[in-house]
Amino acid sequence: MASRLNPYISFSGDARQAMEFYEEVFGGTLRMHTYADFGGKEAGDAADKIMHGMLETTGGFTLMGADNPPGTENTPGNNISVSLSGEDADELRGYWDKLSGNGTVSVPLEKQMWGDVFGMCTDRFGITWMVNINQPQT
């Protein structure tokens, strides 16, 4: 297997719902393991929380996520965004519609000064997404 680089998002107790939502948005195969799967009885109150989740899509996307381990703080901030880009406008607009639904749009998905169609939103789980529809180079 070749090396890969992909986002890994930390959640504060709602990783299962978030990862299932992203599976609805992007399709693909979602695998999730709880703290109980690996820690058994020692998982305590975190037993049903997600220790590791991975979504792999037929389009080549990989998104990982998990609930923070017990006793650690989850402080979402503005230091990371997940970027989607490509030339398939219909596909990217479909992702945009789902991600921005019940979320907050900070930059509407529209043509920008550099010529591409771009938008930025924060989904209902507090994750910032950037969508860029590349315009063909002439």
From TrEMBL:
InterPro entries, alphabetized: Glyas_Bleomycin-R_OHBP_Dase, Glyas_Fos-R_dOase_dom, PhnB-like
Entries under Gene3D superfamilies matching the protein: 2,3-Dihydroxybiphenyl 1,2-Dioxygenase, domain 1 (3.10.180.10)
Start and end residues of each Glyoxalase/fosfomycin resistance/dioxygenase domain: 5-131
UniProt cross-references to SUPFAM superfamilies, sorted A to Z: Glyoxalase/Bleomycin resistance protein/Dihydroxybiphenyl dioxygenase (SSF54593)
Pfam families named in the record: Glyoxalase
CDD domains (alphabetical): PhnB_like
Full protein name: VOC family protein
Organism: Streptomyces caledonius
